[in-house]
Write a structure and sequence with these properties.
The chain is of the alpha/beta class. Helices cover 32% and strands 16% of the residues. It contains eight helices and nine strands. Strands 1, 2, 3, 4, 5, 6, 7, 8 and 9 form a nine-stranded mixed beta sheet that branches. Helix 4 crosses helix 7. The longest helix is centred in the middle third of the chain and has 16 residues. The two termini are 21 Å apart.
């Protein structure tokens, strides 16, 4: 309720969709979603932020949501270069300016959005603060696949096979393939049902596993960010104690000498901190 969606074109081509709720005067929270996510997933959060006096803007990254999918198999999460997502950030900022969304601007970035957002903070000064939810600054990969993950995705991309699914993944939606009791996203049944209901009702939101190129690019980007200068803004980074998707150790290592960062740990929580039990949220 109260949201508006519109489409824009990225600087390098391709249609992108943003959604915004211009419902507050304190400033604007830019929501940077994770891989496979979409604007509507954050409708509840936008409602909660509006109640606290904040406007909200979210974007469907290229290759997911209702933005242009990049491969013939629309179920593969794909990007040509990870830095291409910065064109999407620029498009979101252009929307915020055109719609007069109030300043100051703040970033709230989840998972893959945290990887994109950290690059953004290092390259521009549009955001006063940033909050990261389970940021993807390292990816948990089974020990048996770690050696393979360093070689195969990049080799596949170079050989023109980067559009294939990454190992152990396929085109099915995680939310529709797994029961609540065994899921690795949230311990909150209400939010689980909320997410499942959305992808059941709107098949266009669904996305399966990532491509080999996406995996190669993501691994390379996380390596680059580990040695990048820390952005000079106040940052809070939340990690989940039951995390099984991103690598908390990589996040903890990055924060060790980051003077403007705090690192709360949420006990009993899974990866989706913003879709968790009320006490976690």
């Amino acid at each position: 309720e109260g949201g508006t969606a519109l489409w824009t074109r990225a600087q390098d081509g391709g249609n992108l969709r943003s959604g915004f709720w211009n419902a507050g005067t304190k400033g604007t929270v830019f929501l940077f979603p994770g891989r496979s996510e979409y604007v509507e997933k954050y409708g509840r959060l936008a409602r909660d932020l509006a109640a606290e006096g904040w406007a909200t803007l979210a974007i469907d990254w290229r290759g997911q949501g209702l933005s242009d999918r990049l491969l013939d198999d629309v179920n593969i999460g794909h990007v040509r270069r990870f830095t291409d997502y910065q064109h999407d950030v620029q498009a979101a900022i252009d929307v915020a300016k055109a719609q007069g969304l109030p300043r100051p601007w703040h970033m709230l970035a989840h998972s893959m959005g945290g990887c994109i957002g950290l690059r953004t903070l290092g390259e521009r000064r549009d955001f006063e603060t940033a909050v990261f939810s389970a940021p993807m600054w390292g990816i948990l990969i089974a020990p048996t696949l770690q050696a393979v993950s360093r070689v195969v995705p990049r080799a596949a991309s170079l050989l023109g096979q980067g559009g294939r699914y990454a190992p152990t993944t396929d085109g099915g939606s995680y939310l529709l393939k797994n029961p609540f009791d065994d899921n690795i996203l949230t311990t909150d049944r209400d939010h689980w049902d909320y997410m499942v209901r959305q992808v059941k009702d709107q098949p266009v939101f669904r996305l399966g596993g990532p491509s080999l190129t996406w995996l190669a690019e993501a691994l390379a980007e996380t390596r680059r960010l580990r040695t990048a200068p820390h952005p000079p803004v106040p940052v809070q980074i939340g990690i989940a104690a039951l995390e099984k998707i991103v690598d908390n150790r990589a996040t903890e290592a990055m924060v060790e000498n980051w003077g403007s960062a705090t690192l709360p740990r949420y006990d009993g929580a899974e990866h989706e901190l913003l879709m968790e039990r009320p006490i976690v949220r």
